[in-house]
Write a structure and sequence with these properties.
The complex is a heterodimer. By secondary structure, chain A is an alpha/beta fold. Helix content of chain A is about 35%, strand content about 20%. In chain A, helix 1 (about 10-25) packs parallel to helix 8 (about 160-170). In chain B, strand 5 and strand 6 form a beta hairpin. Chain B contains eleven helices and eight strands. Classes of the chains: A alpha/beta, B alpha/beta.
């Protein structure tokens, strides 16, 4: 049979919507719910039209009861449904911690692995335009610390729908972390969308001098830094982790072994986060040695300020990162 | 009520009571190496509700889940194996006493975070409805669950989304030793449920017949109308919150209360009724008791023997004796 693979240019929000739509079409157990999910804006376009296509039974609006909404998702998932909860901001997941950590993550184990929790929670990290401290949180490391959860963080329009499909198909509870800057992107998406295996990093750029380990919108940032460094004849290899948990430890180690230098580009804070985990990995791997100190790029050690001038200072600035890395050579 | 139904209720309650009495007795040997939350005194709630339910109805429970597991028909040997930390346990040695699971009888587990399983039960009901079944979800909670915000969120969600779920508010009037009146400004849970659009009724939770006869039409109603319902079963825990001891005395629960509730304990009441209604009632009860006791004995002896075999290999140190100053 002839395969009909086409590709279409679309926005990040459209790509996410396409993945949900395809999942709902091919599996009647999939449903989506969230606060304001059927509003005309539809989570930056990512849920627009789903209730028209699949009815409000499979895509429905809900009250502001975060903890119980996730509990409800856990219960439906235990009974074989594949719920997708959509949260407008990552910060709102802190209202759901009891159900995510104490229940979703532990239910499979507590049942002696006789029960699965195929629940997906989408959330968006806010950035820019005065998101302020309570709409900008990036808590992926907190969730990745919890056994039994998967944490997925796409960086591109092409990857996001493929990773989302894999998250929906996974039997484990999965936190699917998007970020607001990603919604500015457009790109080519291959159709039909094929799920992309979780736990596999992708090589975004080849280089022999330093390894960049990056996630989410910091992959774009890392590309900018790499370009500047290339002008100084320093070639960075960029690894887009795509999922934080499970983590592609093998590719990180293989690359660091070759380059001997590493910079970590995290969306979150620099302490107890991705850079800490990469350091742990390197330090615990026999014969894996760095020839210069690790560079950690991420949010400063405070919460994101609401005013634009302070906010500008809060996030990493490309030129400063380039200067810091050049000092290693 | 048919005598057969009464005897079935009695057998289930006696099974729960005997298993828990045996746990109490074995606990001093320190090989049930986990906290146990006994339901002695509350058996009529589990037995009455779950005899009225269908095998296809899905049940969730709390840290005090032994009675619900057995009431649902969970495998006894696998439960005791779980208490003895064996791989053959109902949760494969991963759950323990607070997390009993038996998919075969639709016992889908329990949460030891108070109130935690209530919204999960709403989700199970939603799934059963989405799948087009006429099964319902049964959510056991204590009055402590009624302190939690999740309880009220769940009432609202179940009513709003028209979910077939039976909330069983098993009111033993205490959270550990703190009375309900010290925790809740308004005590009438039926009124609270109604204000969220959930109908409900309060029953004597120590009267198994009343619990059963209330649940039967209520469950039919949930199935037909696809609406939630709440039953409050007022009962009393005769043992400590946790462990085999008691928590009565100064600064704890009043001894006078214990005497009062002992006189209303559910097994004796049902036995009297059976004996009163049937000339051969006493004989029927004795036969039922003998059968259950023999089974309990076999099951515990098997689990204990296999615990010893495993520990001969693993070699865990003997645990410290219990601290008598703690209850």
């Amino acid at each position: 049979m002839e395969e009909h693979i086409t590709s279409k240019r679309m926005s990040f929000g459209e790509a996410i919507r396409m993945a949900i739509s395809q999942a709902m079409e091919s599996d009647e157990r999939v449903f989506a719910y969230g606060q304001g999910i059927n509003d005309p804006g539809g989570f930056f376009g990512s849920t627009v039209g789903l209730s028209d296509k699949f009815s409000e039974v499979r895509c429905f609006d809900v009250p502001l009861s975060e903890d119980s909404l996730i509990g409800m998702g856990v219960g439906a998932a235990i009974q074989g449904r594949r719920p997708i909860y959509v949260a407008l901001r990552f910060d709102f997941l802190l209202l759901m911690m009891n159900q995510i950590v104490n229940h979703a993550a532990k239910w499979p184990l507590m049942s002696g692995y006789q029960s699965t929790v195929p629940l997906t929670i989408r959330c968006i990290i806010g950035k820019d335009w005065g998101q302020a401290a309570q709409h900008s949180g990036a808590y992926h490391a907190m969730f990745a610390h919890v056994p039994g959860l998967e944490v997925v963080m796409p960086s591109s329009v092409n990857d996001a729908p493929r990773l989302l499909l894999a998250s929906i198909q996974s039997d484990l509870p999965t936190i699917f972390v998007e970020s607001k800057p990603l919604y500015e992107l457009t790109g080519e998406v291959e159709l039909p969308i094929e799920p992309s295996p979780l736990g596999q990093a992708s090589i975004v750029r080849e280089g022999d001098d330093i390894t960049f380990v990056a996630i989410s919108h910091m992959v774009e940032f890392a590309k900018g830094v790499a370009q500047d460094l290339a002008e100084k004849n320093i070639q960075a290899k960029i690894l887009d982790l795509r999922t934080l948990s499970p983590l592609d430890e093998k590719q990180i180690i293989t690359s660091v072994n070759r380059t001997g230098r590493v910079a970590v580009f995290d969306v979150g804070w620099q302490k107890f986060g991705l850079a800490s985990e990469v350091s742990r990995l390197i330090c615990m791997t026999p014969a894996c040695r760095l020839i210069s100190p690790l560079v950690s790029v991420g949010q400063k050690w405070e919460h994101s300020p609401g005013g634009c001038f302070r906010e500008h200072e809060h996030y990493p600035i490309q030129q400063q990162v380039v200067t810091e890395i050049l000092r290693l050579f | 009520m048919e005598i057969d139904t009464m005897l079935t209720l009695y057998r289930r309650m006696f099974l729960i009571r005997s298993v828990e009495e045996r746990i109490k007795a074995e606990y001093q040997n320190r090989n049930i190496r986990m906290a146990v939350h006994l339901s002695i005194g509350q058996e009529a709630v589990a037995a009455g509700v779950l005899l009225a339910a269908r095998p296809t109805d899905c049940c969730l429970s709390t840290h005090r889940c032994h009675a619900h597991y057995l009431g649902k028909g969970g495998n006894l040997q696998e439960m005791i194996d779980e208490l003895y930390s064996l791989e053959t346990g109902c949760s494969r040695g991963y759950g323990g006493s607070m997390h009993l699971f038996d998919k075969k009888v639709n016992m889908w587990g329990s949460s030891s975070i108070v109130g935690g399983s209530i919204p999960i039960a709403v989700g199970m009901g939603l799934a059963l409805k989405q799948a087009g079944t006429d099964s319902l979800s049964i959510s056991f909670m204590g009055d402590g669950g009624g302190d939690e915000g999740a309880f009220y969120e769940s009432l609202n969600l179940a009513a709003l989304l028209a979910v077939p779920v039976m909330f069983v508010f098993e009111n033993n009037r205490y959270s550990t030793i703190t009375p309900q009146a010290k925790r809740q400004a308004a005590l009438d849970v039926i009124l609270k449920a109604r204000s969220f659009g959930v109908e409900g009724v309060s029953v004597d939770g120590n009267d198994a017949v009343q619990v059963y006869e209330t649940c039967l039409p209520a469950m039919d109603n949930i199935r037909q109308r696809q609406r939630p319902f709440l039953i409050e079963a007022v009962t009393y825990r005769l043992c400590a919150h946790v462990g085999p001891g008691s928590d009565f005395g100064p600064g704890r629960r009043p001894e006078t209360e214990l005497e009062e509730w002992r006189s209303r304990e559910p097994l004796g009441r049902l036995a009297s009724r059976i004996i009163h209604e049937r000339p051969n009632g006493a004989a029927l009860i004795s036969a039922a008791q003998a059968h259950v006791l023999a089974e309990v004995d076999t099951v515990f002896e098997s689990a204990k023997r296999r615990f010893d075999e495993v520990n001969a290999r693993v070699g865990l140190a003997a645990p410290k004796p219990p601290d008598p100053s703690r209850v």
